[in-house]
Sequence to fold (345 residues):
Amino acid sequence: MKFTAKQIASFIDGEIVGNENAEVYTFAKIEEGTPGALSFLANPKYTDYIYSTQSSIVLVNRDFEPTQEVQATLIKVDNAYGSLAKLMTIYEASKPKKQGVSTLASVSPTAKIGENCYIAPFVVIGDNCEIGDNCMLFDGVSIGDGARIGNGTVLYAHATVYHDCRVGNNCILHSGCVIGADGFGFAPTPNGYEKIPQMGIVIIEDNVEIGANTCVDRATMGATVIHSGVKLDNLVQIAHNDEVGSHTAMAAQVGIAGSTKIGQWCIFGGQAGISGHSTIGDRTTVGPQCGTIGSLKGGETVLGSPAIDAKEYIRLSAYMRRLPAMDKKIKELTKLVETLTKEKE
Fold:
């Protein structure tokens, strides 16, 4: 499917600089552009590529002014990266969607399947499940008894939703993610650890995306809750009875211990770890490999393990780099003091 620069500009309220009839049919990074490709320039580090790219159309921010001749047609927009995301969404939506229930799927006769769904081979849907309209369940997906999936939700290959859990509308669950496995609950006894039954569920609200091999554990009692708009990367662990606020984003390998409440619009860098039974306030940024001990009030940016204010962490890091020189100086001063003391004696 081809689109002209004029059509694209109308989708994203852009200003065309160049040939409005230039056509594209695919996307490419600006440094790897080919004729017929649409690219974008948002990071100034990549500016030099705009003068050599072979892409037919490049999205740029409105304040961009070339210093050399540009062969590509430019479309100026308020936010090049955001506009690209919008166009890619439109492109994906224009692709034909699969529909129908494979004869190789196992669907309980008590399950309710909505309209225009795609149920791939080897999908298993348990008793009393509810699958909303326009859902897509790819090969090997497993939906436990009594689970509910909202409208327009996509579950990629081998995603698993355990019994009685709830997934909202327009969610994306990537391959291998597990929703509703038992929380890590064990009671120590003289004979070892005794398992504590995990009687709760997981509730995932609308417009949530969960990465490959990410796990959201069911609650001991009540519910583990992922609120609307949350984005979880691959290999993230959300423990039992956690609550993650709307529009919070977590990069790969983040781990949230049990009974923790995360606020709205928080950002977690890769491999960050959050201690259990704590509260992280709204709009907190937790840096990569950061380890928090206790609660954070919100609006903070923290680094290090244990986590401290980012500015303080940077200051301490500067001191750490100077420690070898300081150690050498202290040894020299100590030797000098010892020499002077002996001379006085």
Observations:
- DSSP finds three helices and 40 strands in the chain.
- The radius of gyration is 27 Å.
- The chain has a mean pLDDT of 95.
